[in-house]
């Protein structure tokens, strides 16, 4: 089916990238992308994400009705649609990665342990447990995501939003890195988190230096 073929291929490629990074295990996890006409491209339920192809990505409308594709969408569809209804995000990724899942078993939030965490909204909250695929889970995660770009899910995994698929993937990779740092530090002793003044100083330094943007020696921007 030709509808949204490029977007479906991109979602499948993102799923394969996350599986290769070890963040998606077998059929556990899902990826979605907001597309035109109020529709969403989302991975199908029950597929092996490491082998995802364009045909394994389903197009649904804002009410969850399938408009293109041969496979039923992920059981977490309500979560994805809820994000798009309440956030300006263009993409959503949900993983069952080891570090994020482990921390979601023991903490209520991951404090700000590194300044690179700040673009995600600071401390990473842990949404209370609810059975997968339920409206309750979707509500819990949406509450946790208020003013945030990422959250953990108790006894479940993690979710991250992005301005596009690459951004969402990078954000969930960042979440896993932060969780690994926190777990490692906590095993060594009390964790020293950044206080609000330190967080503000880091944000101001990033803004002043246009942190994360490549620059030529003469100061001219580099086209990506």
Q: What can be said about this structure in brief?
A:
The protein is of the alpha+beta class.
Walk me through the structure.
- The chain is an alpha+beta fold and 224 residues long.
- The protein is built from six helices and nine strands; from the N terminus they run αββββαβαββαββαα.
- It has helices at 5-20, 77-86, 98-103, 135-144, 165-188, 196-209; strands at 30-34, 40-43, 57-60, 66-68, 91-95, 109-110, 124-127, 150-153, 157-162.
- A nine-stranded mixed beta sheet has the order 4-3-2-1-5-9-8-7-6, sandwiched between helices.
- The longest helix is centred in the C-terminal third of the chain and has 24 residues, at 165-188.
- The chain is globular.
- The two termini are 32 Å apart.
- Residues 205-224 are annotated as: Disordered.
- It holds the Pfam family Aldolase_II.
- Residues 206-224 have a biased composition (Basic and acidic residues).
- Morphology call: globular
The share of residues in helices is: 25-40%
Task: Name the strands of the widest sheet in spatial order.
Answer: 4-3-2-1-5-9-8-7-6
> Which structural category fits the helices and strands?
alpha+beta
